[in-house]
Structures are given as structure tokens and as C-alpha cells.
Write a structure and sequence with these properties.
alpha/beta, FAD/NAD(P)-binding domain, 9-stranded mixed sheet, 6-stranded mixed sheet, 11 helices
């Protein structure tokens, strides 16, 4: 890069690379900090991405192919006493409620796009720039060094993620189960559901598991051998997809919701900084909105930089305050909604179980409200 960068992005994950590509597209010079890191084994993560995220990534030519981005045609949410809510893509008149995206495939597409973008220079350490955007994740060292308070509420839960194979084809259906301990189990469809009609049904059976369990129960589940875990999982899903078979390693991490008390500011030398993605916020994974929020951060910041007055720097304080106000509102709304759902099922004392399941059945019948919620989750409002 002949000229110095205008923006330095610390963190080359999905949000950091997306932001770099968005800015470079607008002829902004970017330094992307991507320290060399060793592989930690098989990556079993999969994200639920909404229509807004898909449109964004497609505009960067970074959307994975059909084998790695599976449309969710139907979503069934089950309560602990017979309550149920159903969402259907056809009724919403959309192609899919969301797409379950394989993380390694998405990261590879973004990495390839960055490599061929001449306005992005990949560096191994931060470099001076008028604006530094911190996309280092929830354990951000830069955020801590800046003295930004990261207000964390820890859930007494760990998430367990893995890949499994279902006995019966999923047909693009995702299911989620809540129990009376606040635990949430989600099975998400994987594989190319647009395969030819005469293709083997086995192609429609891989699924991604995200199981939020009590932190005291998690070690026992992780210690089970594959056969024992298959039995526990099949029972917990009430045989909805028949017998389930573990096909990968299991990963686990503690759950929390958090938000930074400041998202923007200035270094001692007068240059500006901003937080984005998990460095700024995290939410409970039960709604699958974590990465959608991070990508929306990247889109909002890039759009403000693109549309700024010609005389404003990319690190203009007023510009960055607009970014923080806009994104904090959306993030707080989603954080409170997911936390409220988790808390609703965290208590089993009467009459709560009957009330919450009655509420689920009533909500399922309120078409206008349900459609509005669905379109919010899809990023279409």
C-alpha cells in the first residue's frame, strides 16, 4: 500500500474481514491486523444468518456455496409443557427464514476476497491510522487496554456445539427445545437441500447442534462417550429426527451477555477508535442473532463512512457517535429479548410453566405479531 491506511482493523474474524471489504469497496485504505494463529482442531461452529446478512455478504461475493449455506424452510420452537411456535418461510413469502452457514467455509470465502482486494493490507501488528476499529471478539485485549468497561452478565450455562447426523431427513427444518431449567437445545439443518430429486437422502441428514446446558451438567455430557451422548441427545430431542449420531468433536464455552459502556473514543494521539462485533456486545445464542448483530455493526459503520461529508475524517467524533447510538439501540433490544426468553424458562415454580406454554400457544395464533417478529429476526424490518 503506497499511502498510509485510513482505517486499521484489529481482528480478522468474520466481522473484521467484512468491514475491511466494505471499506475497501468505497476506496478507503485499510490495514487488517491478522496475527498468525495455530489451528485448534476441527471447527464445528455454524451460524444462523438472516436475509440482511446474506445480502451484505453476497454484495462482497463472500457468500458460501449451497453445500455450506443451508436454507431454513421451517422453524419449530417447543416449550416444556406442550407449548409450540411454528415459523414457515412459505407463509412469510421468503426463500428461507435464515441460512445455516458453515463457519470455515465462510471464513475461507472472506479470506479469499481480502487477498484479492488491493486496498487491504494484511499486517501482523497494529499500525497508526485516523481510525482504529476493534473487532477482536469478546476477550479483546485492546478494549481492556482502553479502559472500556465490558458489563458482563454470566449465565450459569455452557454451550455445547457439535455436528450430528439424523436418522430421518431434516428437509430444511430447524427445531429448538426449551426446558424448565432454562436450557435450550437447537438442531439446525446442514447440507445442500437444493440437491436433485434422485440424490441420496443421506445428503439431507447432517445437522448442527447448539445445546445450552447447566454449567454443572456440561462436564458430564462432554465426558460421555459417543454412544452415551447420542442417547442423551436423542432423548432430549424427543426422537424428532429419529436417532442422532455424533459425527464430530464437541466444543464448549461459557455463555454470557455483555455490552461495552463506550463504543467509540480517542487515543492519546488524537486518532479515533470504535468497537464492533463481540468486542462491543454478546448475546445469548438462543435466537441465533450474534453474528447478524456484528455484521450489522460493520454495515452501519461502513455506510456512515461512505456517506460522510467530504471534509469529515473517517475518525470524526460526530460520525462515530452516530454509529454508537444507532447500533447500541438495536443490540440492547435483541439482548433484552433473548435474556427475557432465557429467564422465562429458567424457573419451574407454579404457575410459570403453564403460563409460558399457554403464552407460546397464544403467540403462535397471533399471525400479525408473529409475522412482525419473524421479519425482525430476518433483518427485513
Amino acid at each position: 500500500m503506497a499511502l498510509p491506511p485510513e482505517v486499521c482493523i484489529r481482528g480478522a474474524g468474520i466481522v473484521g474481514r467484512t468491514l475491511a471489504l466494505l471499506l475497501a469497496r468505497e476506496r478507503v485504505r485499510v490495514a487488517l491486523v491478522a496475527p498468525a494463529s495455530a489451528s485448534n482442531g476441527q471447527d464445528v461452529r455454524a451460524y444462523a444468518l438472516n436475509a440482511a446478512s446474506r445480502t451484505l455478504l453476497e454484495s462482497l461475493r463472500a457468500w458460501p456455496d449451497a453445500a455450506h449455506a443451508t436454507p431454513v424452510r421451517e422453524m419449530l420452537v417447543h416449550g416444556d409443557e406442550g407449548g409450540r411456535v411454528q415459523f414457515n418461510a412459505a407463509r412469510q413469502k421468503v426463500e428461507a427464514l435464515a441460512w445455516i452457514v458453515d463457519v470455515p467455509a465462510l471464513e475461507q470465502r472472506l479470506s479469499d476476497a481480502v487477498r484479492f482486494q488491493p486496498r487491504i493490507e494484511v499486517v501482523t501488528a497494529p499500525v497508526p491510522a485516523p481510525l482504529t476499529v476493534v473487532c477482536e471478539g469478546r476477550m479483546s485485549a485492546t478494549r481492556e487496554a482502553l479502559g472500556v468497561s465490558y458489563e458482563v452478565t454470566r449465565y450459569p450455562q455452557h454451550a455445547i456445539a457439535a455436528r450430528v447426523e439424523a436418522e430421518t431427513p431434516h428437509d430444511g427444518t430447524a427445531r429448538q427445545w426449551f426446558n424448565d431449567k432454562g436450557e435450550v437445545l437447537a438442531l439446525l439443518p446442514l447440507g445442500d437441500v437444493h440437491r436433485p430429486a434422485d440424490a441420496p437422502a443421506e445428503l439431507d441428514r447432517p445437522m448442527a447442534l447448539v445445546w445450552s446446558v447447566d454449567q454443572l451438567r456440561a462436564p458430564a455430557l462432554l465426558a460421555q462417550n459417543a454412544e452415551e451422548f447420542n442417547t442423551s441427545l436423542t432423548e432430549a430431542t424427543h426422537h424428532a429426527f429419529g436417532a442422532l449420531k455424533l459425527t464430530s468433536e464437541r466444543a464448549a464455552w461459557p455463555l454470557q451477555r455483555a455490552i461495552a459502556n463506550r463504543w467509540t473514543g480517542h487515543f492519546a494521539d488524537g486518532s479515533a477508535w470504535a468497537l464492533a462485533g463481540d468486542a462491543a456486545h454478546t448475546v445469548h445464542p438462543l435466537a441465533g442473532q450474534g453474528l447478524n448483530l456484528g455484521l450489522a455493526d460493520a454495515a452501519a459503520l461502513a455506510d456512515l463512512i461512505k456517506s460522510r461529508d467530504y471534509w469529515r475524517s473517517v475518525g470524526d467524533a460526530r460520525l462515530l457517535r452516530r454509529y454508537e447510538r444507532a447500533r447500541r439501540t438495536d443490540v440492547l433490544s435483541m439482548s433484552l429479548a433473548t435474556d427475557g426468553l432465557q429467564q422465562l424458562f429458567a424457573h419451574s415454580a407454579d404457575p410459570l410453566p403453564a403460563l409460558r406454554n399457554w403464552g407460546m400457544r397464544g403467540f403462535d395464533r397471533t399471525r400479525l405479531v408473529k409475522n412482525w417478529i419473524a421479519r425482525q429476526a430476518m433483518g427485513l424490518q
